[in-house]
Amino acid sequence: MRHLTTPGEERPLLTAVAPPAYPDLLAEVVELRASNEQLVQALDSRAVIDQARGMVMALAPCSSQRAWDLLVDVSQRNNIKLREVATALVATTEHEALPEPIRRELSRALRRMQVADGGR
């Protein structure tokens, strides 16, 4: 019996009796499960990013694309993953403080957007 895990995981992805004739099949199953986990994480990230985008659209007001661009800009200028910026912004709805570097860059990005729009 073999217990296979992906790197960094503690729980087995698959427990199987693998006949020597099917090692490629077993490897493919492990690869597909790892890929599935990545897709689930991507979907979870997308949901929080979309929530943050909606918050920016309400704050600015601006289009969905402009809100996306603003979040990407804040992420890049802080060298923080987009999903982390989005998570921090959404967490403010639960009375958590926005981390200072993100707050500062978000304010700057909103001001830049206003200037680009002619101060509307």
List keywords for this structure.
120 residues; elongated
Describe this structure in words.
The protein has 120 residues and is mainly α. Helix content is 66%, strand content 5%. The protein contains 4 helices and 2 strands; from the N terminus they run E-E-H-H-H-H. It has helices spanning 23-59, 64-78, 82-91, 100-116; strands at 2-4, 14-16. The protein has a two-stranded antiparallel ribbon with strand order 1-2. Helix 1 crosses helix 3 (82-91). The longest helix has 37 residues, at 23-59.
Task: Report a brief summary of the structure.
With 120 residues, this protein is mostly helical.
- Order of strands, main sheet, comes to 1-2
Assembly state here?
Answer: single chain
Report the order of strands and helices.
EEHHHH
In what range is the share of β-strand residues? 5-15%
Radius of gyration: 21 Å
Residue-averaged pLDDT: 85
Compute the separation of the termini in Å: 67 Å
Beta strand count? 2
The amount of helix comes to: 55-70%
The number of helical segments is 4
Low-confidence stretches: none
Please identify the structural class as seen in this structure.
mainly alpha
State the shape: elongated
Largest sheet properties: 2 strands, antiparallel
Topology (elements, then pairings):
Layout lengths: L1 E3 L9 E3 L6 H37 L4 H15 L3 H10 L8 H17 L4
Antiparallel strand pairs: 1-2
Helix pairs in contact: 1-2, 1-3, 2-3, 2-4
